[in-house]
Design brief:
Strand content: 5-15%
Helix content: 55-70%
Oligomer: single chain
Length: 749
């Protein structure tokens, strides 16, 4: 591995024009594809194998003109104080609005509140249901404008009017904090490298990689039905790993220059050593993201594969374009320890020179001092780290899962205000009606089956209203709407769904009719249960595959085991933080969380996948430096210190950059993206600075040589991937007499 990448790095350095041309051509091609691609159409949200999805599919088959996936809107009217919606003037305004709404070209139907019994008992609130022929993402802007214009006309007439439903669904924006995150990354890179040119390389390559990835996703969005969240996640992951991977290779390049090697040789060795770590770190991230497909939720699978593709691009760019750009930069990228003229390089060089003349040894860097401290007190550091993360994980025991609805949106949105008006006028359960589908095709008396289902549901606790059965033209299938007495995201509503399904089993035995519960609320409940059921198998698959991969990388059993256990600590602590902020409301104002509630259903499994991949990044980068020192003859405790001497500064910078990039997405208008950004940012903080920087060196110091133990039979069976670049050293030593400059560089190393 190291030898192949070494040759690749030197080739990219020499053929820099060709390499740069290839990547620019790929970026241009992807950009043209994105610009010429049709607009993204509907994003299907199917959950194969769930009862709610089976009912939805049955509706599509038995009610062909129903447009079950069409966009919906609820135009909610509230009368002025002291008036009612049944007053003649208010009624006339609503009827005019209904007529205006019916004129839309994409409108399938509009239900008049006065004929559909959609007026509250106290007469102060009414609503008109609007059904469209196309989905919310396919709805034309002219239809949205017509909807808002009709609402505004009613407002001008004196009514309070708000609009709920998915008809106003728009692509979420991330806000200015995303740019701030990139700005923080730039500052950290400048401080780390002491050079504007060296700092700019990781940013440039990361942006090119993300540009190719996002443009490709945009080009394929219509064909593959990719949602807006897919590209947001790909951007989030791609920026973070793209900057980090390039950072590690540029840092190693500068270290090789400091050892006295020529620039082409330094580029080859940087790609051969740090590049090997990049490859395996990228593989762990890809395994974690692609592994999301085992959950069997198409949307989650597409998100994972798209993000994994962006990671692959980031790895390839780091291995090829970084050495090519280093060739262009030439002497503008200084060896490690030297700063550019703009960063005070001359003063630093003079100070270093005077220190060497005085014979004073160089002062150990912060990474060396910290590692030495941990090695001296491993038990205390280990206990402190484990207890601290354990305390942060405590809120995770109160984790409640669900999927967001209009009730979780900011109070500044019309969707949220419509939700509140409906709750006040009709009860909290009105925002989450359950649709019961009765399939009586195999029943001898369908009408009797429909009636029995309705009567049985009326007798269930926590049911406010049950509408009469509405059969299809064939008379073999009917829908019944059930209004719960609790809000859609409550445990009470979840229990009601299960109670109706239990009643369905009794109906099946009596009438041979099948009862299915669907609707957005039931779908959300089924998604949560499906994700919970998939969590352990997914964890076993991803951690198992990555464990095997790390055994190959580190040629050890205990080091990969320690890495996996450390990851579990950090992800549980991160989940605890997510619960504390988004469910309990701690620091909610600071994070821009206007409404607390259940944590997004896919958050645990998503965090397990992404955080595991990113955690292994730091494990690979930091511990490969330790193993490299150990393989080259250092004692285990000294190898830990050496690993921190060369790796701590870079890993810390990479972690700060990744935290900044993820935290930038906290400003998103989409609650899902906001929660993901916060969860990943806090998880990286816990994993990089507590697990990898404290717990890992403490455990390795306690294990000593046992940390690198591997059964002999397994050692013989495993392929030698040579992440440490031992093959490069061996080859160089073998030809040392033919290449004295190379030999002197190795002696200095």
């Amino acid at each position: 591995m190291a030898t192949f990448l070494y040759k690749l790095g030197r080739l990219a350095f020499r053929r820099r024009h060709f390499v740069a041309l290839i990547w620019v051509a790929l970026l241009t091609l992807a950009g043209v594809g994105a610009a010429s691609a049709p607009a993204a159409g509907t994003t299907s949200f199917s959950i194969p194998g769930t009862e709610a999805q089976k009912a939805f599919d049955l509706l599509e088959q038995r009610f062909p003109g129903m447009s079950a996936d069409g966009a919906t809107a609820r135009v909610v009217f509230k009368a002025p104080d002291g008036q009612k919606m049944t007053d003649a003037g208010n009624k006339a305004t609503v009827e005019d609005t209904v007529k205006e709404l019916s004129d839309g070209s994409e409108v399938a139907s509009v239900a008049d509140p006065y004929t559909a019994q959609a007026v509250s008992k106290d007469g102060t609130v009414a609503y008109a249901s609007v059904k469209y022929d196309v989905s919310g993402m396919e709805l034309q802007d002219s239809s949205r404008d017509a909807l808002e214009d009709a609402a505004q006309d009613a407002r001008d007439a004196g009514l309070t009017v708000e609009i709920g439903g998915d008809a106003l669904q728009t692509v979420p924006h991330t806000g200015a904090t995303e740019i701030i995150g990139i700005g923080v990354a730039a500052v950290v890179l400048v401080i780390t490298f002491g050079s504007l040119i060296a700092a700019g390389l990781p940013l440039l390559t990361a942006l090119i990689g993300v540009g190719i990835g996002i443009s490709t996703i945009t080009a394929l969005a219509s064909t593959l039905e990719l949602g807006s969240t897919t590209s947001t996640l790909a951007m989030m992951i791609g920026l973070a790993v793209g900057i980090d991977y390039a950072l590690f290779i540029v840092s190693r390049y500068r270290a090789e220059l400091a050892e006295g090697r020529e620039r082409e040789e330094a580029a080859g060795r940087a790609v051969g050593t740090a590049g090997s770590a990049v490859v395996f770190a990228g593989l762990t991230v890809v395994i974690a993201l692609v592994g999301l497909s085992v959950v069997n939720i198409p949307m989650l699978t597409k998100m994972g594969i798209a993000a994994a593709g962006t990671v692959v691009i980031a790895v390839l760019i780091a291995l090829t374009m970084i050495p090519a750009l280093l060739g262009y930069a030439g002497k503008k990228v200084q060896p490690a320890g030297k700063k550019s003229r703009w960063m005070g390089g001359k003063r630093a060089d003079k100070k270093a020179a005077s220190g060497s003349e005085a014979g004073r040894p160089a002062k150990p860097n912060l990474g060396t001092r910290w590692a030495s401290f941990v090695v001296r007190r491993p038990i205390a550091i280990l206990l402190l780290g484990v207890v601290g993360l354990g305390a942060a994980a405590i809120p995770a025991s109160s984790l409640e899962l669900g999927l967001g609805d209009d009730g979780s949106q900011p109070t500044s949105t019309t969707q949220r205000r419509a939700y509140d008006l409906l709750s006040d006028g009709f009860g909290p359960g009105f925002n989450g009606p359950l649709m019961v589908v009765v399939d009586a095709k195999g029943s001898g008396d369908p009408d009797a089956a429909f009636k029995q289902v309705g009567d049985d549901i009326k007798g269930i606790k926590n049911v406010v209203a049950v509408t009469p059965a509405a059969p299809n033209k064939a008379g073999d299938t009917a829908t019944i709407t059930v209004i719960p007495d609790a809000k859609p995201s409550s445990v009470t509503t979840e229990d009601l769904v299960h109670a109706i399904r239990d009643k369905g089993a009794e109906v099946k035995a009596d009438t041979d009719a099948t009862v299915l519960v669907t609707g957005s609320t039931a779908m959300n409940i089924d998604v949560s249960e499906k994700l919970n059921d998939a969590l352990l198998p997914y964890l076993a698959l991803v951690v198992g595959l990555a464990f095997l991969l790390l055994i190959v990388v580190f040629r050890s059993i205990l080091v990969p085991l320690k890495a996996a256990l450390g990851f579990l600590l950090s992800v549980m602590a991160a989940l605890g933080a997510v619960v504390a902020v988004f469910q309990w409301g701690w620091f909610a104002g600071l994070m821009g969380v206007e409404e607390t509630g259940p944590v997004m259903s896919m958050m645990p499994i998503f965090m397990v996948g992404v955080v595991f991949g990113l955690a292994m990044d730091y494990e690979v980068f930091l511990v490969t430096r330790m193993r490299e020192a150990y393989v080259h003859g250092e004692k285990p405790s000294q190898a830990v210190v050496t690993g921190f001497k060369y790796g701590a500064r870079v890993v810390s910078a990479a972690a700060v950059i990744m935290i900044a990039v993820f935290a930038g997405f906290i400003g998103s208008s989409e609650s899902m993206v906001k929660m993901i950004g916060f969860g990943l940012a806090i998880a990286v903080f816990f994993d990089a600075f507590i697990v990898r920087m404290a717990i890992v060196p403490a455990v390795l110091a306690l294990l000593g040589k046992k940390a690198w133990w591997l059964p002999k039979w397994l050692d013989r069976a495993l392929p030698n991937v040579d992440v440490e670049g031992e093959g490069l050293r061996t080859d160089a030593e073998a030809k040392g007499s033919e290449d004295p400059d190379e030999d002197r560089a190795l002696v200095r190393a």
